[in-house]
């Protein structure tokens, strides 16, 4: 057996099921289900993040799957992509030493992701824009890109931040 396989995740190369598990008690034994498209896009992000580095910078999953109750408890958007149906299609992530907008621009480079920029990091999901492709949290309130600037994340972010 290849010794390198020891570091492989049980969901994808860099991700483990426990990282995506709903944190509530009720879900302790529930099967963790994550969209393979989302995992593929997250792995693509890692390739970009680690480009030119001789070490791996971990992507920390702050929130993966959530059951309805947990989603409600933390004030998540009703019908959130974090709720598996049947797979969870969203992840809230952060990377040490990358700002949320830097991480968001990497997600944009990967493409096919909706991206929400928050203080703690970013939300990404693999749902098509409807109609917004991006959002920025101002406090707890998301400002959506649809009516403002839906094609360029940095431009949209700068408009929202007034820079
Ligand atoms: Zn739960
Ligand atoms: Zn999220």
Residues in helices, as a percent range: 25-40%
Pairing-aware structural class of the strands and helices? alpha+beta
- Uncertain runs with pLDDT below 50, 5 residues or more? 1-5
Query: In angstroms, what is the radius of gyration?
Result: 16 Å
Tell me the number of helical segments per DSSP (H or I, 4 or more residues long).
5
N- and C-termini, Cα separation: 53 Å
Total beta strands: 6
Main beta sheet strand tally, sense and closure: 6 strands, mixed
Beta-strand percentage range: 15-25%
Bound molecules: zinc ion
Spatial strand arrangement across the major sheet? 1-2-4-3-5-6
Helix/strand order, N-terminal first: HHEHEHEEEEH
Principal-axes geometry comes out as: globular
Question: What is the residue-averaged pLDDT?
Answer: 94
Q: What do you see in this structure?
A:
The structure is a single chain. The protein is of the alpha+beta class and 163 residues long. It is built from five helices and six strands. A six-stranded mixed beta sheet has the order 1-2-4-3-5-6, covered by helices on one side. Strand 3 and strand 4 form a beta hairpin. Helix 2 packs across helix 4. The protein starts with 16 loop residues before the first helix and ends with a helix. The structure holds zinc ion (2 copies). The site of one zinc ion has 5 residues, from strand 2.
